[in-house]
Amino acid sequence: MAKKAGRIVTGEELVIKSIQAERARLVFVAHDAAPNLVKRITDKTTYYEIPMLDIFSSAELSHAIGSDRKVIAVQDKGFAKKMESLMK
């Protein structure tokens, strides 16, 4: 639903720009992504105090949005809140 609403950003560089612009509300990173990608995203989300979840594999994230991605940022506060509550 968030993808159809245009409220997600995918891909490493776009997600990092979204985090730095403080538009990202929740970030998903694949637990099987490259260690340097995970570290880079973890460092950015920690610094900007944005919640990050790494409970899905890259195949699961890719299937969820319909394209091959390892990192996704949700930019809508409502979607992010609901997704985060469902993951806990």
TrEMBL record:
Q: Where is the Ribosomal protein eL8/eL30/eS12/Gadd45 domain?
A: 2-82
Q: Which domain of life is it from?
A: Bacteria
Residues in a coiled coil are: none
Give the matching Pfam families.
Ribosomal_L7Ae
Q: Which residues cross the membrane?
A: none
Classification via Gene3D superfamilies: 3.30.1330.30
InterPro entries (alphabetical): Ribosomal_eL30-like_sf (IPR029064), Ribosomal_eL8/eL30/eS12/Gad45 (IPR004038)
Q: What NCBIfam families does the record tag this protein with?
A: PRK07283.1 (NF005585)
Stated name of the protein = Ribosomal protein eL8/eL30/eS12/Gadd45 domain-containing protein
What is the source species? Pseudolactococcus plantarum
Q: Give the source lineage, highest ranks first.
A: Bacteria, Bacillati, Bacillota, Bacilli, Lactobacillales
